[in-house]
Amino acid sequence: MFFLKEEDFKKQVREIGFAIMGQTGELVPADKKLYALRDVTATVDSIPLIASSIMSKKLASGSDTILLDVKYGEGAFMHTIDDAKKLAMAMINIGKKLGKDTRAMITDMNQPLGNTIGNALEVREAIETVKGEGPKDFTELVLTAGEIMLMQGKIAKDKNEARIMLNDAINSGKAFDQLKKMVAYQGGNVDQIENPSLLPKAKFKTEMKSKNEGYIENIHSMNLGILSMKLGGGRERKEDDINYAVGLEMKVKKGDKVKKGDPLCLVYHDKKLDHEWIESFYHTFTYSKEKTKPIAIVEEILQ
């Protein structure tokens, strides 16, 4: 695992404009102890404590402006949009009281974001997106976040100017170049970014086909995450190894019309899919005779 030291993090941001980082023991060390206390006092779901935990790390990192992506739905920590808004406003109020321009996007996670679930598959999808070839929903989420950050940084005066700048960065190849710089700075393999065929590959690919006909009414995203984990794409126990090659590539979204035999998903796996896994996969989808109304990926922007 590659750990970015504080001085390297600051240097990288100065030189290329951004970095990806996570919490370490040196950043808000009390947070881990407080989380353990929340665990034994059954307050893990307390919105004020969630807000303070998240914002303590944002504020400790020295941010002047903060943009939060607060997700709701089956695949998110906040299951309802009302709870997502409560959490978002709690964090915004904390930021404002400390003089930070803090905003939040309320985004839908009642179906998978983008088309892929799995480590190498999602890296490939991210590469496609910065080249302008990504899934519609994921691309819109990224562009909306980019618009807000450009306005927060006083680089663009409004959404339209920001969207033009973002599209120019994608179409010119600048966004892809910046991604490669970030990977290089943080110890990654740039060759895999330039040539995604070098990313880890699963031994087998299996197409899962619909057994029903109608419109996709619901896709249980939590179950898909569990199914990916069972393939090896995540840890069931702390000591488990992760298989970076396995995962799911979705072929349908909510509201899509399908016939029997139409592809629902392409499964990347290293071991034979057992009966229990396959049955669980098919229980992920529900169907309707009538088309369901699509939900915008970004439900609301709060500030």
Describe the protein:
By secondary structure, the protein is of the alpha+beta class. It has 2 domains: 6-194, Pyrimidine Nucleoside Phosphorylase, Chain A, domain 2 (3-Layer(aba) Sandwich), CATH 3.40.1030.10; 202-288, Alpha-Beta Complex (Aldehyde Oxidoreductase, domain 3). 44% of the residues lie in helices and 17% in strands. It has 11 helices and 10 strands. It has helices at residues 6-16, 29-40, 47-60, 81-97, 119-130, 136-152, 159-171, 174-185, 190-194, 221-233, 275-282, and strands at 65-72, 101-108, 116-117, 204-209, 214-219, 247-250, 257-258, 263-269, 285-288, 298-302. The strands form 3 sheets. The chain has a 4-stranded antiparallel β-sheet, with helices on both faces. α4 (81-97) links the parallel β1 (65-72) and β2 (101-108). α3 (47-60) packs across α4 and α6 crosses α7 (159-171). Residues 215-288 form the Pyrimidine nucleoside phosphorylase C-terminal domain. It catalyses: thymidine + phosphate = 2-deoxy-alpha-D-ribose 1-phosphate + thymine; uridine + phosphate = alpha-D-ribose 1-phosphate + uracil; 2'-deoxyuridine + phosphate = 2-deoxy-alpha-D-ribose 1-phosphate + uracil. Its EC number is 2.4.2.2. This is Pyrimidine-nucleoside phosphorylase. It holds the Pfam family Glycos_transf_3.
